[in-house]
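hi! just following up on the protien thing from before. the input was this:
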Amino acid sequence: MLLDSLFGPFFRKYFYYYDSYPIVIQIAILLTGVAITTTFIAYSSILTRRANGYLKDVRSKKINQFLDNLITDHIIFNEDVMNGISPQEAILDITPFTKPVFKQKWVKQALIDRLIYFSQSFSGDRNVLFRRLFMELELEKLSFKKLKSISNSTKIVGLVELTSMGIAVADVIILPLTNSKNRKLRSEARIAYIKLSKNDPFKFFDDATEPLLLWDQLELYKIITTTEGLTIPNFARWITYSPNKSIVSFCLKLVIHYNQHEAIPAIVKLLSTKDHYVRADAINCLGKLKADSVEEHLVSIYNNQPLRCQLEILKALGRFGTGRQINFLRSEFLRSNDFDIKKNAARSLINHGMQTKEIVQQLIDTASPDNAIILKHCMNPLIKY
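and the predicted 3d structure came back as:
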């Protein structure tokens, strides 16, 4: 009755003859009503979300403080471990973690998040206890359940949880994910496989069909080179047989890091590949491995290579530093009009040290002003080659 008394006169005055209004007025009234309704719904949704977010933050803060106290008392300050007992044999009291509050799914998830947080903050004995608690409370079942979700984001969460807690995942579950169309899921699955696989952590290289993007390579490189106890294979296996060019290029970087000279024959075969990006990576790898046995071959193919490969050949000659190609480097510096070729030829000459000291000085004395500037610039020891 109150609403009728307030809005009744308004509607009777302005909308009683709605059908008699011109069509333009009818449309304007309709659109205005839609706009007002939409605005009201939008603001209501925003306020509801903010209210829910606030309540969730308050709830999370309260439960996290409760969980932190339990973890501190029963894990971090575990009496047996503090008395010198090994974490595998220490008594772990899980009774406080089986209270009725932990039957709620969101509380279990909060516990998983806190255990991951603490495991990343501690190392050694405490990490063993965190993992034991994770397993004894059967929290890994929740993480494995996430891997069966149709949502890629949920699968990613599950992978991160299992990887963080060091829980082994069967190859049949994780290998298909390493070729997922979703870039983030594919990346996390590859990282998880390297960390968790006990037999062949690089097996997914065999079946990788999706490319390793640059960011993926950086992440994998960091994981591979920092994970303790990782069995490092001979990467020549994939350099030779993998049809995935990004895998080949990535393996070349790993060959350099682990100084795998036994892979040189496989790398030399890449000099005849049609893909000049892979060919340039192969030349770069040979140079950093100081495989000077291919020096003559690199010079012989130099003129038939694109600029990218020519620059890598010039760099490789400087890294070899044998002194056998000094005249070639000098000739390229004087002959070429390309700045990058001049710069790299000059840097490789200078990289020979005392062998080319007089030649470099002669070039500076007789060179044009621009060439002299390039030579003097390349002589700066702070410039990394």
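The mean pLDDT is 88.
The CA atoms of residues 225 and 257 lie 8 Å apart.
cheers
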